[in-house]
Amino acid sequence: MITRLRKEEQVKSLSESIQKAKAGFLVDFQGLNVEQITKMRKELRNEGLADMKVCRNTLFKKALDDYPEVKEHLQSKLTRSNAFVFAFGEPSKVAKILSNYVEQTETLKLKTGFLDGKGINLVDIKTLATLPTLEVLQAKFLSVLSAPLSNLLAVFSAAPQGLLQVMGSYKEEKEKK
């Protein structure tokens, strides 16, 4: 039996996690064995990316009291055995990890979630999982920014190179005569 004090601590911890998280995903883990859950938790905790918490649905609901928009979205899905995965790092990486586990195990089920304080559905989560990582997006953006400068540099260097080629040809002609 969990004491009232312990329940209050859990609600406070859940509420803090909701506040700090960039995104959260509600998953039904019923049917997973301990080894699978442990492996998934380790992968999610890697580099402080995310944290998975399991507790009673009533405590989840109490923790959501301070976040009415998220509560409204999640409340109907808080049935059966749930775990909440809080994404403190990049949400797309966490969604990708969860989607991979859903495909691998076929017993883990993504239910719903939130992103930046707004509720998201299963389609949004799958879309989020297909997005490239932040590093890849940054690299693509930098290549787009650097392309015009590279082209401009090529244009500016082409004129002196052309002049040198003309002078070289002129010199060769003079030497032949």
Walk me through this protein's architecture.
Strands 2-3-1-4-5 form a five-stranded antiparallel beta sheet, sandwiched between helices. Helix 1 (4-20) crosses helix 3 and helix 5 packs across helix 6. The radius of gyration is 27 Å and the shape is elongated. The protein has helices spanning 4-20, 34-45, 57-63, 68-74, 91-105, 122-130, 134-176; strands spanning 23-28, 50-53, 82-87, 109-115, 118-120. The protein starts with a helix and ends with a helix. The chain is an alpha+beta fold and 177 residues long. A hairpin with a 2-residue loop joins strand 4 (109-115) and strand 5.
Index terms:
62% helix; Alpha-Beta Plaits; 7 helices; alpha+beta; 177 residues; 5-stranded antiparallel sheet
CATH architecture title of the largest domain: 2-Layer Sandwich
Mean pLDDT across the residues is: 85
Kindly report the name of the CATH homologous superfamily of the largest domain: Ribosomal protein L10, N-terminal RNA-binding domain
Question: How is the quaternary structure best described?
Answer: single chain
Classified by CATH, the class of the largest domain is Alpha Beta
Helical amount among residues, as a percent range?
55-70%
Q: How many domains, in number, for the residues?
A: 2
Could you give the distance between the termini? 106 Å
Q: SSE order, as H and E?
A: HEHEHHEHEEHH
Widest β-sheet, arrangement of strands: 2-3-1-4-5
Number of helices: 7
Low-confidence stretches: none
Report the portion of residues in β strands: 5-15%
Number of beta-strand segments: 5
CATH topology of the largest domain: Alpha-Beta Plaits
Radius of gyration: 27 Å
Provide the structure class.
Answer: alpha+beta
Shape estimate: elongated
